[in-house]
User: Fold this.
Amino acid sequence: MRSNHEIDYQIFGEEMQYVEVELDPNETAVAEAGSFMMMDDGIQMQTIFGDGSQQQTGILGKLFSAGKRLLVGESLFMTAYTNTGHGKKKVSFASPYPGKIIPLDLMRLGSKIVCQKDSFLCAAKGVSIGIEFQKKLGTGLFGGEGFIMQKLEGDGLAFVHAGGHVLQRELQPGEMLKVDTGCIVAFTQNVDYDIQFVGGIKNTLFGGEGVFFATLRGPGTVWIQTLPISRLASRILAYGTFKRKEEGGVLGGLGNMMDGDGW
Assistant:
């Protein structure tokens, strides 16, 4: 039997998805600020300190839990959505950028998932949203995006979002997968995570993809994304700040035409 609230859900959309959560009377879902999309009348919104999980006992416990969330760039507060009416009510949460929403049933996944620090979208009340420090020296020094990660604990449903297409991979005991650190969305707690250096002077100088990558060793399940938000943001920034040397000339005008800027 679950100790977290039992919520039903449905995911809509292809590239820009949203998840519709169905709440029975007195059931609650929690979400990060900025993920709310719409809700039925009869659902009450309330700002809560931390994640509202059962692990938070007393003011010191709440302060410690909420303070850890600051380390992963999240707010001290979350929003709780409670069905205070009669009958079933629905509340929807939208993904912040193109990609996929991944439902995670923590009861079936060993009660704990480690995920990228900006991937959490929403969850059933009772799910604990904390941080996961990587203890290995290599991971700590060179992990970049993977150094401090989020952890989701409990026995309820949680939802994370990822960029582009998402691959779910089942790793057998001892099987290893080498992945760009930004492409990791989440993995189950039994997966061993570390950072490996790509040796060789050519790789160091001309590799292009960086000289470090993540290694994931089974057994366990991993979720991989094709378009990390950091990669998307860097491309948009580079495109927006690029200025043609021939701008103002005939070639510049032709280039702008091909880009769709017109005359």
Observations:
- The chain has a mean pLDDT of 80.
- The helical segments are 58-71, 137-142, 201-206, 229-241, 250-258.
- The radius of gyration is 21 Å.
